[in-house]
Write a structure and sequence with these properties.
The complex is a heterodimer of chains A (295) and B (274).
Chain A (H helix, E strand, L loop, with lengths): L2 H34 L17 H7 L2 H34 L4 H13 L2 H11 L7 H8 L14 H26 L3 H9 L4 H12 L1 H16 L3 H6 L14 H10 L4 H30 L2
Helix pairs in contact in A: 2-13, 3-7, 3-10, 3-12, 4-7, 7-10, 8-9, 10-13, 12-13
Chain B lengths: L1 H32 L19 H8 L5 H32 L5 H10 L5 H14 L6 H5 L6 H11 L4 H9 L4 H9 L4 H17 L2 H6 L8 H12 L3 H21 L1 H10 L5
Classes of the chains: A mainly alpha (295), B mainly alpha (274).
């Protein structure tokens, strides 16, 4: 055996267990679920039979699933741009101040590293109706009318969405700030010497150079909001995406179908629909944003 | 220059206002945890008579399962992190420093799993765990996270910065391949290992969806699952819910304060939530 073959054998030996892991715990399950989405698989049934695309037809005709998809779209369409715009603004302000950058950034990152379950319940407590909720107490102090927040079919989704923006803000700010700090100061100074105003520097130099970072965050946050689950589970009454399914996300719908109703075949079909949406949105973002942002 | 000074002052004002928004929920949580069952319903920023009674209940009462959940979370987060550190650095090292047929394909195969969100996998994982009798066991909760594709990617990048001469020199010395990896290579990548360890620990401590599905018996809950369950049943005992929330954050805040530099650097590289 030559030395090269011997080394290659060592490499295969090192990779054997990890490869087996990825096949057994990632690819295998994915394929298994694809196959099972075509069957009447249920944990309460003894047998399951091939039903073709029946599960997909049933799930796409289910008004609750369609509502959960439209809720998911709302989370992503409003949430991702909101968190990106806010964090870009904060990062630009942080870059402006001479001292205390680190301390501010640390404060902003705090919600991102704490358990979502915990912060969800803290916000749920804060959002309570008067006289319990501190947010309503604040509104009252300002002379504003009390709001229902999580109890109202109209306000519950925006409330959960706002909490998720609050959670993700520190992450995006940190990534943006790292991006701003890679812009060579000579470029900015040269433009200044040539008489460019602060606004011109921002629009013609800083923002274009941040395009790749913005693009990365748009994709990451898009996926993050499309997958929203834990916040909705913990902030909606009885963990069901209420009131009146107004906050139910696609991920929560899938969870309930699979682990409350035990309709695994239907749930598999629903999760493949969500997967296809996530992939499609990501690919469209890559195409559109790539063209727009890269000069 | 006056305009610029005013601009900086305005920036500080806005940043501070945002800091208050970011910190107030934590402050309110902590204050609520120091109030008793009657004070919790009084709208006061600071408790009139602060008490540690809620903490005594959470940690010492017989009916409280928080100590068990705390232990479960700690054991599982530590075990998964150790496994990820070992396997991810081994795979990263192999993919960076060895030459063998199929290397690119294997790398692509591993990286492509990053595209599959957890939500897509929990149903087949549950079927698997059920037929193998893994439900309600540590292993059942831990197995999906024993190796992380993101960590493989990270470690491969770092291994690329080590000169090949280091490996070759160790080989000339006649050391075994596993020994070279453990004794020569790993000590060279400790900063990367530290980042991976912190992120993996935080990610595991906060994980919710799979632990929620994989454990149905309260004694097997992780802290987030236990907290969700406890809070759902606690009704209007908000003082206890807020104490539970504070307790579930405690280890993370300590990790955060101890490793803030690595965390900020790591986030700048990419996110930590799986």
């Amino acid at each position: 055996m030559t030395l090269a073959t011997k080394r290659a054998m060592t490499a295969y030996a090192f990779l054997a267990l990890p490869l087996a892991f990825f096949l057994a715990v990632r690819f295998g399950p994915m394929l298994y679920m694809m196959g099972r989405s075509l069957t009447s698989w249920g944990l309460l049934r003894k047998t399951s039979s091939f039903v073709g695309l029946g599960n997909f037809r049933e799930i796409l005709a289910d008004p609750v699933f369609l509502q959960s998809l439209s809720n998911t779209a709302k989370y992503a369409v409003f949430g991702a741009p909101a968190v990106i715009a806010l964090s870009l603004g904060i990062a630009l302000l942080l870059d402006l101040v001479p001292r205390g950058k680190g301390a501010y950034r640390l404060i902003y990152v705090l919600p991102y590293i704490t358990p979502i379950v915990a912060v969800s319940w803290v916000w749920r407590w804060m959002f309570q109706s008067p006289p319990l909720g501190v947010v309503n107490a604040g509104l009252a102090a300002l002379g504003l009318p009390a709001q229902e927040f999580l109890n109202s079919p109209r306000q519950a989704l925006p409330s959960i969405l706002a909490v998720n923006v609050w959670v993700e803000l520190g992450y995006c700010t940190t990534v943006f700030l790292a991006g701003i700090q890679t812009i060579p100061s000579e470029v900015v100074e040269a433009a200044r010497i040539d008489g460019a105003s602060a606004r011109q520097v921002l629009r013609k130099i800083v923002l274009p150079l941040l395009a790749p970072v913005t693009f990365f965050l748009a994709v990451m946050e898009g996926i993050q909001f499309l997958r929203i689950f834990t916040q909705v589970y913990n902030m909606s009454m009885q963990a069901t995406g209420g009131p009146l399914n107004s906050t139910k996300s696609a991920a929560l719908f899938i969870y309930q179908k699979a682990f409350v109703n035990f309709e695994m075949g239907l749930a598999s079909a629903a999760s493949l629909v969500l997967f296809a949406i996530i992939m499609a949105v990501t690919l469209v973002q890559i195409r559109v944003l790539d063209k727009k942002l890269n000069y | 220059m006056k305009v610029r000074k005013a601009g900086v002052a305005a920036a500080y004002a806005i940043l501070t206002l945002f800091s208050v928004t970011m910190l107030f929920p934590f402050f309110w949580m902590l204050m609520s945890s120091l109030k008793d069952a009657t004070q919790i319903f009084q709208m006061r920023l600071l408790p009139a008579k602060p008490t540690l009674g809620n903490y005594a209940y959470i940690f010492l009462s017989r009916s409280s399962r928080f100590p068990q959940w705390f232990l479960n979370s700690a054991i599982m987060a530590v075990c998964t992190t150790l496994s990820v550190l070992f396997f991810d650095s081994l795979v990263g090292y192999t993919l960076s420093k060895f030459r063998f047929p199929g290397k690119k394909l294997i790398f692509l195969l591993i990286i492509s799993t990053l595209m599959i969100p957890t939500e897509m996998l929990v149903i087949p994982w549950y079927a698997m765990a059920r037929s193998l009798k893994w439900v309600n066991s540590y292993w059942g909760i831990m197995f999906p996270g024993m190796i992380s594709a993101f960590g493989v990617f990270l470690m491969r990048q770092f291994m690329g910065t080590i000169p090949d001469d280091f490996v070759d020199a160790a080989r000339v010395d006649g050391q075994g391949e596993l020994r070279i990896f453990l004794r020569v290579i790993l000590p060279l990548v400790t900063p990367a290992l530290a980042t991976l360890a912190i992120f993996n620990f935080i990610g595991n401590w906060n994980a919710f969806l799979w632990p929620l599905i994989a454990a149905s018996k309260p004694r097997m809950f992780t802290l987030p699952v236990g907290l969700a369950n406890f809070s759902g049943e606690a009704g209007s005992d908000w003082h206890l819910i807020m104490t539970g929330a504070t307790v579930s954050m405690l280890p993370l805040v300590l990790v955060f304060l101890a490793f803030q530099k690595q965390i900020v650097r790591g986030i700048a590289m990419t996110g930590l939530k799986g």
